[in-house]
């Protein structure tokens, strides 16, 4: 439209000048355009994930977990000004900030997501453990007792339910028929994210898996301020026992394992003293505001009871160990190394060897017999039975319940 008007009025030279100007402006624009700074490549987590999370959260504000509102006579908390104000204050105090918990939880989500995708029958238990721990150490940006692996990577299989991780020299290989419990711990400033799941590669035990997943979800849903631990155990038991598994034509009831439990968690202390048993019991202890709990349930096709069996891999310094004079100098220096590298966080023999310790067993067993270090043997139900586990960590905030380790996987 514009051009014909122009043509009629402007002479030939006029036209060339105009075109010159237009081209100039265009090149100006182009020249201007050229300066645009290069597009900052969006930071991606590699595969396997190995980039420290602070790179993705430069402001130190980490994702909030799943929020569940309190029920019954605690619903007022959600809207209470006073409680929300209290929470704001708490969040200003670096010690109690939720950010340490949420960073540990986000690391946990990424590490387990990779584990769920890559763990395959035929892999050795040792390489499975190393892949998980290398991921945790890189993503949490491990630094001494400030941040790191929260406890030994649990890789208990089949009738064994907890406290197995490979020791050096363990060449055992994951089998297609195995029921594998993967229990991963990540800590930031001693705030431990403790969450676990069960993997299988054949569908024989799908109902066992469903039963335990549902029982853990009941425990999480029913947990809350002023809830009595014994009652919560009863609700978990009810859900678990409403399932059965058919194996080779025989139907087995799913049993909650009566001598295992969920547990409260304190800074640098994996078992904070409160146990959430998986069966009804008369423990009148109440859950309290600010409590931080690992809600975990274990189901079994066996007796529904574990016994300690097999070689020990898991250890932890006894929290309030009596101060006993140590005659064995090797035990004295080993204790120094334990305090320096782990404090009261749980560890395993592989982690001790990573710090440079060798030929330490005599000294270690001396520390165990002196009651300074607790050994945690594998916990197993009867041979031939199968056990499953699911676990999440929850925080009983003044206003709401936060399932900090919840993910889109479970
Ligand atoms: O979560 C030395 C660890 N925990 C790692 C984790 O329940 C834990 O025994 C402890 O490394 C030490 C249990 N309950 C009785 C008190 C009734 C077990 C079940 C699972 C587990 C591994 C656990 C348990 N106790 N503490 C945390
Ligand atoms: Co736990």
Automatic annotation (TrEMBL):
GO terms for molecular function: initiator methionyl aminopeptidase activity; metal ion binding; metalloaminopeptidase activity. Substrate binds at residues 163, 271. One of its GO terms (cellular component) is cytoplasm. Cotranslationally removes the N-terminal methionine from nascent proteins. The N-terminal methionine is often cleaved when the second residue in the primary sequence is small and uncharged (Met-Ala-, Cys, Gly, Pro, Ser, Thr, or Val). Keywords: Aminopeptidase, Cytoplasm, Hydrolase, Metal-binding, Protease. It comes from Collybia nuda. Residues 21-58 are annotated as: Disordered. Gene3D superfamilies: Creatinase/methionine aminopeptidase superfamily, Winged helix-like DNA-binding domain superfamily/Winged helix DNA-binding domain. Its EC number is 3.4.11.18. NCBIfam families: met_pdase_II. A divalent metal cation 1 binds at residues 183, 194, 391. A divalent metal cation 2 binds at residues 194, 263, 296, 391. Residues 100-297 form the Peptidase M24 domain. It catalyses: Release of N-terminal amino acids, preferentially methionine, from peptides and arylamides. This is Methionine aminopeptidase 2. Binds 2 divalent metal cations per subunit. Has a high-affinity and a low affinity metal-binding site. The true nature of the physiological cofactor is under debate. The enzyme is active with cobalt, zinc, manganese or divalent iron ions. Most likely, methionine aminopeptidases function as mononuclear Fe(2+)-metalloproteases under physiological conditions, and the catalytically relevant metal-binding site has been assigned to the histidine-containing high-affinity site.
């Amino acid at each position: 439209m514009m051009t014909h008007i122009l043509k009629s009025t402007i002479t030939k030279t006029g036209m060339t000048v105009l075109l010159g100007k237009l081209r100039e402006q265009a090149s100006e624009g182009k020249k201007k355009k050229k300066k645009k700074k290069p597009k900052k490549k969006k930071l991606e987590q590699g595969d396997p994930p190995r980039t420290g999370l602070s790179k993705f959260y430069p402001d130190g504000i980490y994702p909030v977990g799943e929020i569940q509102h309190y029920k019954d006579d605690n619903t007022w908390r959600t809207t209470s000004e006073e409680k929300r104000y209290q929470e704001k204050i708490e969040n200003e105090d670096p010690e109690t900030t939720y950010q340490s918990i949420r960073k540990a939880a986000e690391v946990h989500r990424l590490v387990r997501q990779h584990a769920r995708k890559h763990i395959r029958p035929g892999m050795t238990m040792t390489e499975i453990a190393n892949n998980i721990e290398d991921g945790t150490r890189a993503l949490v940006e491990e630094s001494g007792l400030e941040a790191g692996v929260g406890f030994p990577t649990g890789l208990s299989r089949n009738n064994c339910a907890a406290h197995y991780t490979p020791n050096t020299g363990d060449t055992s290989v994951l089998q297609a028929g195995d029921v594998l419990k993967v229990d991963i711990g990540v800590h930031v400033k001693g705030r431990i994210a403790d969450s676990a799941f069960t993997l299988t590669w054949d569908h024989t035990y799908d109902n066992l898996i469903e039963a335990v997943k549902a029982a853990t979800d009941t425990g999480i849903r029913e947990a809350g301020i002023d809830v009595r631990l014994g009652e919560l155990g009863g609700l978990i038991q009810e859900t678990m026992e409403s399932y059965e598994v058919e194996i080779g034509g025989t139907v087995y009831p799913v049993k909650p394992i009566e001598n295992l439990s969920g547990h409260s968690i304190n800074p640098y202390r994996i078992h904070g003293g409160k146990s959430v048993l998986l069966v009804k019991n008369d423990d009148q202890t109440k859950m309290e505001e600010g409590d931080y709990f690992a809600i975990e349930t274990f189901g079994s096709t066996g007796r529904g009871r574990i016994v300690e069996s097999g070689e020990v891999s898991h250890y932890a310094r006894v929290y309030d160990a009596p101060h006993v004079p140590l005659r064995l100098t090797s035990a004295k220096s080993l204790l120094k190394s334990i305090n320096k590298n782990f404090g009261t966080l749980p560890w395993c023999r592989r982690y001790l060897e990573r710090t440079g310790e060798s030929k330490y067993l005599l000294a270690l067993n001396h520390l165990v017999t002196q009651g300074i270090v607790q050994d945690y043997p594998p916990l197993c139900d009867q041979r031939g039975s199968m056990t499953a586990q699911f676990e999440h960590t929850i925080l009983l905030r003044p206003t709401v319940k936060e399932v900090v380790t919840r993910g889109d996987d479970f």
